[in-house]
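FORM 12-B: Structure-to-Sequence Request
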């Protein structure tokens, strides 16, 4: 479990660093981060750990599409390596709190919606996608299944790669009969 946990954490933290960089470079009207206060990390961390989370004013698609997608990635980072549902769920909850308090906590106070939506949607949709991806993988992936998995379950692709579906052998039963 330790190796799986470290690999999954590495994938998730790499994703978080990329997401943080994108948000840091984004205009204020998109990220909702006050660029004038971005250098005040210590003040924001103090607020993150001493004040209650707040209802953020992010766009609906950030809170209800972006955060569930982040939750699915976190869940799948461990689940696609053979982690069970409980381990993967606790991992998702832990990394959601890590993102809100440690990564984003230096920029803004934690968000109530994000602390709820990210792990719950991530666990539910993550397990659904895990089962679907597992079924697709049984006989190898077709090109459209690979595209689906790369978009909706990229942690699986990073952890496992793909084996391609083998072409079906043509039946010669009718040609050899007299």
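FORM 12-B RESPONSE
SEQUENCE OUT:
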């Amino acid at each position: 479990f330790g190796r799986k946990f470290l690999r999954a954490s590495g994938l998730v933290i790499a994703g978080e660093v990329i997401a943080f960089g994108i948000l840091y470079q984004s205009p204020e009207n998109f990220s909702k981060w006050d660029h004038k206060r971005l250098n005040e990390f210590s003040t924001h961390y103090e607020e993150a750990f001493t004040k209650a989370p707040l209802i953020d004013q992010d766009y609906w698609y950030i809170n209800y599409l972006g955060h569930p997608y982040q939750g699915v990635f976190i869940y799948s980072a461990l689940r696609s390596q053979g982690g069970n549902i409980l381990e993967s769920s606790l991992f998702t909850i832990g990394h959601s709190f890590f993102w809100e308090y440690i990564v984003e906590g230096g920029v803004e106070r934690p968000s109530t919606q994000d602390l709820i939506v990210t792990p719950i949607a991530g666990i539910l949709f993550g397990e659904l996608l895990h089962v679907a991806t597992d079924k697709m993988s049984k006989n190898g992936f077709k090109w459209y299944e690979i595209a689906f998995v790369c978009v909706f379950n990229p942690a699986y692709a990073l952890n496992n790669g793909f084996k391609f579906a083998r072409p079906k052998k043509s039946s010669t039963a009718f040609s050899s009969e007299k």
